[in-house]
Amino acid sequence: MIYFNHPHISASDRDYLAEAIIGGHTSGNGKFTQRVEEKIRSTTGTVRTLLTTSCTHALEMSALLCDLKPGDEVIVPSYTFVSTASAFALYGAVPVFVDSRSDTLNINPSLVEAAITPRTRALCVVHYGGVACEMDALMKIADRHGLVLVKDNAHGLFAKYKSQYLGTFGALATQSFHETKNLTCGEGGALLVNDEKLVERAEILREKGTDRGRFLRGQVDKYTWVDIGSSWVLSDLLAAILWGQLQRAGVINARRIAIWKRYHLCPTSNVNTVVCKSIAEHPIGMLRRLRFRVTLNTDNRLMSNTSMTREFTQCTDAFGWTLDDFQWITVNSVKSAFAQFEERLRLINEVVKPRYATLRSQGLSAS
Ligand SMILES: Cc1ncc(COP(=O)(O)O)c(C=O)c1O
What residue spans of the chain are helical by DSSP H? Predict the structure, then answer.
């Protein structure tokens, strides 16, 4: 049975969870929440990261931060999960769907401007499967028309576009830690706020419309109701699991890549979905070419330096890959190609040749 998804849970996740339970701080804003928020904030370079109860809720907070009035329009991609549109519709906005590119499955920037009307307030794009949208073009459009740019980055934590983390473009971005995502705590999410002016209101919205955040920082002696809002703070128990996951983010993502490669690179694989085709245009698609080159050049001339440099430059320029990423991929592609080659040689020497020899000695044909 092939599972749709299999969360990568380790003993350390359980240890952190136990620590949170024993510590007694089981509601939100505890030490694990602070650690996770700070880790994501400092890694990505966003102004403020707020853990939330889900990505859907982070999108709802975004809708409120956009100050939408009933009848305002929000542009969303035609291909996405329901929350990208429903979070805005919940607050009275009209989702306007713009068609997606068939290769990346992301919103097609060349179709966005035709959908903008005087009522358009925001543009919410999705980096589907962690594959970056064309942010240069989309940011220009948002700037030209004064739209708030929201990124539903549910799938793309720590992925990059031109060396910049996906969550840091535009004013707001949302993450999901649902069971199906690479890093998970069962159910959970985050709002990444990149606009200093929105930080305080985002904190208030998440705390049921109160200024509890100021109270916790000792800025006021009691907290009161100051705005609308809801209960969107993540429990510290879930943040503890997430802290464990974050420690292994590199390992978990590498494992995901390895599994993806097994499907994508297998010549007999019938898993040849649009998603795979779209990724093939991205640097990971280089793997296919690397593998063929490696397989052909088994005399140790693996790659010419020029093609290596050209492909590495493409990866770093377009997708922000580091030398480490590229080396990891290259080394593993080379290893797997050689492993297959050696296995084939072994079969020929140990099974096929002796069988032919036996057949010949018996005067029989090999058919
Ligand atoms: C693109 C996208 N946005 C939002 C969500 C909602 O995430 P959550 O379950 O954390 O609310 C999902 C869930 O899969 C998703 O794929």
Answer: 11-23, 31-44, 55-65, 83-89, 109-115, 135-145, 196-206, 212-216, 236-247, 249-265, 274-280, 286-296, 305-319, 323-347, 353-361
